[in-house]
Structure of leucine--tRNA ligase:
Amino acid sequence: QEYTIIKMELVAPFPDKFKVLEGKKVFLAAATLRPETMYGQTNAWVLPDGKYGAFEINDSEVFVLAHRAALNLAYQNHSRVPEKPSCLLELTGRDLIGLPLKSPLSFSEVIYALPMLSILMDKGTGIVTSVPSDAPDDYMALHDLKAKPAFREKYGIKDEWVMPIEIVPIIEIPQFGNKCAETVCLQMKIKSQNDKEKLAEAKKQTYLKGFTEGTMIVGEYAGRKVQEAKPLIRTKLLETGQAIVYSEPEKRVMSRSG
Ligand code: ZZB
């Protein structure tokens, strides 16, 4: 599986726990298969109990991601020490909640890291960028946070990180409109982010529709089909140093859906 890693930059001043990283450029490294949707990013997702680390990618840049992903990246020429992850700081998802980030192409100047309970730590980087207009999982996780004050309280989430978030329409799909994740979640009567089976089906549908029938309505390639815009946007993100390629080696164990 070939992902694009989006570099979501931690905005200074760093919180106490991250002070040892001062002077470096620090990024939450989000793995995505949909680089063309980056205009619609509203926040980042982390697993509260997930184990993460801050790894030196080169002399000046640090990526926060799962240890397994750091090892894979080290073998893909993205480690200060060749073939060896160099961890400066051990972290959990809870340490990441509330971090202010600046992410490529997002219309929001600053977005925040928030908890999502369905993140798999053995897939991608364990960091996910949130596009609630087009990703059903993101739409439902954001819905849960907005609708449930107790949930926000449990994780020490400030209202100002969540309540101002608005879904940004970025892709138009015939019959699904410009917030296809919302359309599908409502149609399928999905209740929360824990509704795993229905969400898997919703994801499948929106992936397919978005790719085959979607048209960009924002950004440099507005008016172009998603199929055409996707590789162009990806290349631009890579060329401008805002993203890197990440190949996920085949897993030995079968995935849950396999
Ligand atoms: C932005 C985005 C926008 C995504 C969208 C999807 C969609 P797949 O096909 O199952 O490999 N993701 C990445 N890593 C994880 C993880 N560790 N745990 C849970 N989710 C993860 O799915 C890849 C997508 O799943 C990635 O692409 C990421 O979300 C998420 F409009 O990034 B995506 C219809 C989906 N739309």
About this structure: The CA atoms of residues 55 and 156 lie 26 Å apart.
